[in-house]
Amino acid sequence: MNHHNQRFNKRIKAGKVHAITAGVFLLLLLIMPGLQASAEAPSFFIEAAPGKQEPVQSDADEINMRREIDFILYMMGRGDLEESLFLLQSIRGPGIQWQDSLHYLTGWVHYLRKDLDTSADHLLLVSQESPVYRKSSFFGAYNLAHSGKASKASSVLSSMTIEAGTMPYALRHLQMSGVALLDRDFELFARRSENFSGRYHVMAAEERRMMQHYERLRDMPGRSPFVGGMLSAAIPGLGKIYAGKTGEGIVGFLYVAALGLTTYDFYRGSGAGHPLFILSASITGIFYFGNIMGSAAAVRRSNNELNHEMDQRILFDMHIPLRNAFN
Amino acid sequence: MKWINGFYLICIFLCATLSISANEHERWLQAADSLFRGGNWFEASILYERAYYTSTDARGRIVANLAKGEAMKEMGEFSRARRDLQRSVTFRGDESLREELLYQLALCAYLEGDAAGARSYLLQIKHGFEQMPRSRTFLLQGLVIIEEERWDDLRPHLENWFLETNEPSEMRDDYLYAFDNMVAELGGIPSPRDPDRARMWSTFLPGAGQFYAGSAGWGVLNAFSQMAALGGFGLMAWNGYYIAGVFAGLGPFQSLYFGGIRQAGTLAEQKNKSRMDEFQAALKRFLLDVAAQKQQ
Asked: Do the chains contact at B15 and A21, CB–CB below 8 Å?
């Protein structure tokens, strides 16, 4: 009898469990629309609920934010940079724990768009507590250096706290040396480059090349626009050859020589008072002095081109180790 | 009992996860549609991408992808629309969706300027969906034929179009008559001027290459300026200014002479392009008018 009762009780218990499970199933089916409605707001973007400006966010906000960031990363991976930026700018009232991620992502999107000034502005807002602080600071400083703000880049790099003898420490030395070279501060470069060790493969080649850039810049003869102008005054076109523009120099010489010979021909045939001689001499004079001014400008242009080329090489050798180290 | 409970639990899990994610995809799609209707193409394209991203099944993804393609087309981003649509090219299932995808790919390729790419997608539609009505692809096919300058294929294509879309024979004849008439009014298929021949003409007779290319004004100007330069040289030499004659007369003459030869070739190329563009534009207008009339 007892045994029969026990089996009966067991059946009742199992039936209860069964009924409860089925009940939950039915209940879920009934309340599904409600659950779905709360799963994610159909609004365009993540937005903190009213009165949620305080740093602590609810779990739902946290989950939504993570999903939003995941989606932005997905868009960035696809190369949809405009869209990523739009999504980042559309996030309103993010919790304080997300500020760094947002600054970093915004800075990185601008960096990928080659908008380096704005990128630096955002990357340098990442706080020291963030795991991407170092990457942000290095890239922020690089972006500043690329935008011609060498001293600002230098101060960002110096303000970073990095343990001596580590790879980031060596990387900072390389970056600071590059900045000194961009500033054409050879003395500072010589001091900073003493720490080049060649120990880290991510930057050993760049350290060597940075030394070569230094030597090339140090030994580079500074061409003077005045000398260029004077050379062209002596022999038309010679100043351009001095500036490294041999073809332009030869063409300039031929033009002035042809005009000079034409003027001489008019002088020989009609004398100094003839209108053809005066016209021809005037044109020759204009070309002659134009050639002198053009030669001075060519020297300036040539100097600028050389400096620009060297800057690009230095920036390239600052950039590659950063990409190697952080990507 | 255990397996019944297990069955219920599995059902609960699957129902909850699948319907939530399916619903999320729908929500993004609806929000995107509403933005699209409001003319906010850029924002709509992001939400369509979001619908694509959150979709758990291939059908949902292709639907979102096609809708995103529409938004991108509205933005004039045909190349990106094509790139995005390409993601769903392996989709198998709903044949009408697959046909729509191939059609949109063909359209984007054509709008992007890749007529050969468009032709390849249209061929896939032709051979892959023989049972589907082809009324829509005829227009695009015609435009591609014009773009590729396959003139021998154009009239048979038009005849085929009218035949397959059950056009009454009188209407068909009217359309074909209008087409032939228009081509005749345009002076037939433009025969291109050979740039090399234009250069050769200018080499032997200054200005003649420009005439051959169809630019009489440039031809006269060229011939006159070269004669003036030569005349200047002759006049200076006659007066004993030999050096000045060489530099101030022969110098400009050689520049004008060689420049004239180069210009004749360039003019021929430009003229060919502009005449062909005009002819193609007129044909395209005709096809679009026909398609519009057939839709009414």
From this structure: no
**Chain A residue nearest residue B242, CA to CA:** A265
Of B11, B19, B28, the CB nearest to A32: B19
Print pLDDT tens along chain A (327 aa).
445 455 545 554 555 555 555 555 544 444 444 334 333 433 444 443 333 344 445 777 788 889 899 999 999 999 999 999 999 998 877 677 788 999 999 999 999 999 999 999 999 999 999 999 999 999 999 999 999 999 999 999 999 988 888 999 999 999 999 999 999 999 999 998 888 888 898 899 999 999 999 999 988 877 899 999 999 999 999 999 999 999 999 999 999 999 999 999 999 888 888 898 999 999 999 999 999 999 999 999 999 999 999 999 999 999 999 999 987
Q: Which residue is closest to B35 within chain A, CA to CA?
A: A44
Point out the residue among A75, A80, A266 whose CB comes nearest to the CB of B241.
A266
Q: With a cut of 0.85, is the ipTM above it?
A: no
Residue B5 touches partner A, C-beta closer than 8 Å: yes
SS3 call for B63: helix
Domain boundaries, chain A: 61-148, 225-314
CB B5 to CB A21 under 8 A?
yes
Residues 6+ apart with CB under 8 A from B70: B36
Minimal-distance CA residue of chain B relative to A72 = B50
* Sequence-distant (≥ 6) Cβ neighbours of residue B241 within 8 angstroms: A265, A266, A269, A276
User: Is there a contact between B248 and A262 if contact means CB atoms under 8 Å apart?
Assistant: yes
A-B contacts (CB, under 8 Å): 83
**For residue A83, which of A113, A51, A43 has the smallest C-alpha distance?**
A113
Nearest by CB to residue B8, choosing from A25, A83, A258, is: A25
Compute the nearest-CA separation of A30 from chain B (Å): 11
Q: Distance of CA B49 to CAs A45, A46, B61, B62, Å?
A: 13, 16, 9, 11
CB contact under 8 A, B15 and A29: yes
d(CA B99, CA B45): 22
The CATH code of the domain at B1-130 is 1.25.40.10
Could you give the CA distance from residue B245 to residue B262 in angstroms, rounded to a whole number?
25
Q: Are B27 and A42 in contact (CB under 8 A)?
A: yes
Q: May I ask the CATH class of domain A61-148?
A: mainly alpha
